[in-house]
User: What shape does this take?
Amino acid sequence: MEEILPGIFHWATFHEGIRQDVHSYFIAGVDPPVLIDPRVPAEGLGWFEDHKPPAHVLLTNRHHYRHSDRFEQSYGVQVWCHKDGLHEFAEGQKVTGFSHGDTLPGGLLALQVGVLCPEETALYLPRGDGLLAIGDAIIRVGDALGFVPDGLMGDDPEGIKRGLREVFARHLAEREFDNLLFAHGKPWIGGAMEGLREFLAQVPE
Assistant: This one.
């Protein structure tokens, strides 16, 4: 567990299903504390007992439920996913729907991404220098930003990329954030807004 900003923790775990590391976050410095796309860290669920425990889980898309059920069993968290992704969840998985534009627990704003899938959501926290949490829409490989492989983008990957460029260009114009949290890739702390702008400028129109 690494405190990447005051009250904001990051960790990576190996996801057996996709055979690669994925990234999770605990926003402890908001009320109530929230998790984003969580898997259980190497330190175990007991790590959270030394902090004000999480009360909610926020998912950037339906595929990132991950270990949410373990946090529900241990801490009674409420899990949230955009309403268009609720069909994914099995009976017994307690997931509450939200709409794009809603302010979610902890004060995070659900920004519409869509394009990849209807429920794809970026989570914006206007705290400090601001942060934006991104699910599958943009990934970070090493220090470089990119997209998921074309084979995961359906029949028109270039169209998807153009759509994502337009969506995030709009968010860049409307929001201020200096930090990016990725579900796939290490977080970018400081200077991330300019880095995202430079990446989008390279996407063909």
